[in-house]
Specification:
Number of helices: 3
Strand content: over 45%
CATH architecture of the domain at 3-38 and 56-147 and 503-546: Sandwich
Helix content: under 10%
Number of strands: 51
Structural class: mainly beta
CATH class of the domain at 3-38 and 56-147 and 503-546: Mainly Beta
């Protein structure tokens, strides 16, 4: 069994256990379903009035196990008055106590939508569909999954990979590739999840990526050599450390424009926020001070002496403290966040280069790659609590509610330090997990500082392995990763998860932004795990107002090579093709396109940018690494043709010694 199958087989087993508990014999009788008009919108209706055949939006309601559950689809602001096919909408569940009307909080719902093919499902049919969705049955797939999350990887080249790690049965989990104007240095996700901010090399500034469409929507000029990027907790501003000119650019997150450029001192900068995000703390490696900035006024409020060599900074609101790692001096400088003053210094060892607080905010972890140590400080006493040895150049850190994850740069293992054991007498518990075949240090393209993407369940992580060019899926309690996710030939330097699942946006109200499918009536399947409640509601998706021709990909692709001819292993083949946009569209440029060639169903995979030919055609060179069936895919996001929107072209590669067919691309 493949690693991927083991991964999702295990997920399926866990789901089956959960379903047996939730949908067991104690499930209540079939729900009653009724529809009522939604409250009128505050804005005036469009001047032309509703289109023919339209009716007011509806709210679907059920009562189950003492809960009143309502569901509606709301169009995004500015998108009209009805949710339309193939557009984004907001899915909203409002759940209250049926007797008192009090909000039902902290339910952790799972939900799906599936287009109705016949009569509404009865209670048994509703439960069966939920079982199928959770178990990943290939024959029953939802049209909308409200529990999804996507994995973004920062690669060694000028790309970001977007991977759906939940697709158990898809032959390719790659959702799209985002091409940047240059190689990237770091990335940060907006709290809303709809924008990703990426610092670029070569004077290319800050790229803003629309995560819903997987396209770069803006490029913001900032200072010289931007490296670290961080989004303020309130999501209003983005902070970029410019290592080349000693400044920090503060960017308006929505307008994608620089609000102010702050002088911060020479050298590399790191960023942290305290006081609920009201104060930003900026380190400068070659300066002697740490700068505190009021995030509301963008005015400097303090400059604190810490000495040259500040390599990292972390803040804890629970402790009211900011910790700065001074690498050459081998100390952690403790700053009182409220008084904005130095409160103490804790000696560790020279070489400390990373620091971070665990979720409770009491214990701070300081990593020392040079000495192979992890120092753990107790913020309640301002002193060193533990010093752990035996690490192989620990350089990156992440946390779940139970463990601190430490990457070992010199070995293919991840060290898990149990957080509850920090408060017990004796040495903290450390679990060693073998992750990958090669140590991260073996990667040619460099290593990022954020290789861990913590799972939404907070019980594991996806670990980027740049040397192996894959990502490992680890769940706590296992002694090895449960499976792997391919990064399709690229080195993943950093990884993060974009959570698209339902969130409790206000008491008893759970919402998520979803991409709708075809028009028509849909069943809405809901599972409340903690309450052992399953229910089916319904929603109607209106026809798209966009003409069908405008929804289709904005170009057609014609192969100028014989797709039926055999290619030869290890022999370069020039594959020429013509890409023709709509008659009203401007000519297509090579920089707008990418070609993916992969061995079907799994195996070799490469993404390249085509070359422009003198006759208006385009070409790529493909050197088959092994015999088999391959597929040629073209994407051009700017022309409404993301990866998978255009038909693929089959390629066949013959075994060495086989006589190739006549003709073909050579």
């Amino acid at each position: 069994m493949s690693d991927s199958n083991r991964l999702f087989g295990a997920i399926g087993r866990d789901a089956s256990m959960l379903i047996a508990c939730v949908l067991g014999a104690a499930v209540a009788p079939a729900c009653s379903r009724r529809e009522t008009p939604a409250p009128p919108a505050a804005a005036a209706p469009p001047a032309e009035g509703p289109r023919e055949g339209e009716r007011s939006p509806v709210v679907s309601r059920v009562e189950r196990e003492g809960l009143s559950i309502a569901f509606e689809l709301r169009p995004l602001p500015g998108a009209g008055d009805r949710p339309e096919a193939r557009t984004d909408a907001t899915a909203v569940f409002t759940i209250t106590d049926a007797a008192t009307g009090a909000p039902a909080r902290d339910l952790g719902p799972l939900a799906w939508m599936s287009r109705r093919a016949g009569a509404p499902p009865d209670d048994a049919g509703c439960q069966d569909k939920i079982r199928s969705f959770m178990a990943g049955r290939i024959a029953v797939r939802p049209d909308v999954d409200m529990n999804a999350y996507l994995l973004w990887t920062q690669n060694q080249d000028n790309t970001l990979s977007v991977i759906n790690p939940q697709l158990a049965w898809s032959r390719s989990k790659l959702r799209s590739i985002v091409t940047l104007a240059a190689g990237s240095t770091s990335l940060a996700l907006h709290p809303d999840g709809d924008r990703l901010y990426v610092t670029l090399q070569g004077g290319r500034g800050l790229a803003v990526v629309d995560t819903r469409r997987s396209v770069v929507t803006a490029s913001v000029p900032v200072g010289a050599e931007p490296v670290r990027v961080a989004v303020a907790p309130d999501g209003r501003t983005v902070w970029v450390g410019n290592d080349g000119d000693g400044t920090v650019s503060v960017v308006d997150a929505r307008a994608a424009s620089v609000l102010k450029t702050l002088r911060a001192g020479p050298g590399h900068h790191e960023l942290a926020f305290s006081g609920g995000g009201r104060t930003a703390w900026i380190t400068s490696r070659d300066a002697r001070t740490v700068t505190a900035v009021d995030t509301g006024t963008l005015e400097t409020v303090a400059e604190l002496e810490v000495g040259e060599g500040a390599a990292a900074v972390a803040a804890s609101d629970a402790a009211g403290a900011v910790y700065v790692a001074n690498e050459p001096r081998g100390e952690i400088v403790i700053l009182d966040a409220g008084r904005r003053a130095v409160a103490g210094r804790v000696a560790v060892k020279a070489g400390v280069s990373a620091v971070g607080f665990e979720p409770g905010g009491r214990f701070a972890f300081a990593l020392n790659p040079a000495k192979g140590e992890v120092s753990i400080l107790d913020a309640s006493t301002g002193s060193l609590a533990h010093t752990l040895a035996g690490f192989a150049s620990p350089d990156a850190l992440a946390f779940t509610k139970t463990y601190a994850y430490v990457r070992n740069l010199g070995e293919s293992r991840v060290s898990l330090i149990e957080l509850p054991s920090l408060e017990r007498p004796g040495k903290p518990t450390v679990v060693e997990v073998q992750v990958g075949q090669q140590p991260p240090r073996a990667a040619k393209g460099g290593r990022g500082a954020a290789p861990f993407a913590v799972l939404p369940e907070d019980n594991g992580a996806i670990v980027a392995s740049p040397a192996d060019k894959v990502l490992y899926y680890y769940v706590e309690g296992m002694m090895a990763p449960m499976g792997t996710l391919s990064n399709y030939g690229r080195e993943p330097r950093a990884a993060l998860l974009e959570d698209r699942s339902l969130k409790e946006v206000q008491p008893g109200v759970y919402a998520a932004t979803v991409r709708l499918g075809d028009e028509g009536v849909h069943d809405v399947e809901l599972l409340l795990r903690d309450r052992r409640v399953a229910a089916c509601l319904e929603a109607t998706v209106a026809p798209s107002a966009v003409p069908a021709e405008d929804r289709s990909p904005g170009l057609t692709v014609e192969p100028l090579f014989d797709a039926g001819a055999d290619l030869e292993v290890s022999k370069p083949a020039t594959l020429r093709f013509r890409a023709t946009p709509k008659a009203s569209a401007p000519p297509l440029e090579a920089k707008e396109m990418q070609v993916m060639i992969f061995r079907f169903p799994v195996g070799f995979r490469d993404v390249v940018r085509p070359r422009a030919e003198p006759d208006g055609a385009f070409s790529v060179t493909f050197t088959p690494p092994e015999p088999g069936q391959y597929r040629f895919l073209l994407e051009a996001g700017s022309r409404n043709a993301p990866l998978g929107a255009l038909p693929f072209i089959d390629l066949h590669v013959a075994s060495p010694g086989d006589a190739p067919d006549a003709g073909g691309a050579r």
